[in-house]
Design goal:
It is a single chain. The chain is an alpha/beta fold. The chain has twelve helices and 17 strands. Strands 2, 3, 4, 5, 10, 14, 15, 16 and 17 form a nine-stranded mixed sheet that branches. Strands 1, 6, 7, 8 and 9 form a five-stranded antiparallel sheet that branches. Helix 4 (about 55-70) packs across helix 5, helix 8 (about 215-230) runs parallel beside helix 9 and helix 11 runs antiparallel to helix 12. The longest helix is centred in the N-terminal third of the chain and has 17 residues, at about 55-70. The radius of gyration is 21 Å and the shape is globular.
Amino acid sequence: MSGLGERLRASLASEGPISIARFMALALLDRAGGYYAMGVPIGAAGDFVTAPEISQCFGELLGVALARTWLDLGRPPRALLVELGPGRGTLSVDLLRAVRSVPGLIQALELHLVEPSRVLRAVQAARLEAHRPRFHETLDTVPTGAPLLLIANEVLDALPIRQLVRDARGWRERLVALDPEGRLAFALAPTAIEAAFPEAGSEPPVGTVVELGPAREALVAEIARRLAADRGLALLIDYGRLGCVGDSLRAVRAHAPADPLAEPGTVDLSADVDFAALRRVARAAGAAVFGPVPQGVVLDRLGIGLRLERLARGRSAVERAALEAGVRRLVDPAAMGARFRVLALAGPGGPVPAGFLAEEEWCG
């Protein structure tokens, strides 16, 4: 077992079970053995690949959407460009390259990167040095008082979740504990709690699992409050569903499914995003809410086909095929185009964000 796993096992033996939320936080972010503290997991040589690593068009077109918002706001002389979980910095690199063509925008932007991993910060700092990024462990320390242009791609799915399981006595929280052989295992809390989840039905069958994301909801509520006060746009891109029913906790290593408990700190952990819950908290915090809309649809509306044509001009047949394959992976419903969705949050009373339609605004 990993070093973090041994420490967890000792802690569980002496102090008892912990919630899945606590387990995820330790497994991903523990400074001495958490997954994101140990290396750079993104890319073909890592454990998973994200959209910015697949095609430069992704970051460029999100830049187009943010630029449109800046223009709609009247070209403010200062705006906060914030990326949550920037990975290797690829999305920000592509986005900033794309917005250089908008007069005055690059000069107005302050780049703020919210990244708790020291390893990834070093990579981001090297790639984005010319833009003088300011680093933050959480959104709390990002300043306010200027329009917010925020991107979060595959960030919410990695925030800790809680799981509740229905049994004959009611809802009980699923925990991480030790089995009789001393291995990490899932267990249920001994005490049932009173709770109601309409999405699970009035009498959910025994074994029904619901997932709650208090950390996700708190983050989205904070983004929405900032937008309500300072205006701007936030684009939240992730995989998920409209609801909380079902066990979606997963682990991946070397681009393949893995056991989430076997080697804590050596595998990526994530769970589906409940977009319905995020819409509710964002709307309650004062933001205008659009979507979620499938990623492929938003990218098509932003002009990914035209961008691909321009990139492919003068390229060899092999280069064109690679560019086309990357774009196809982003927009094809059978690949990432439908599984990933985009939720847009905006300041109230403003225009419809680029890539969305007026009828896609969610009003509760």
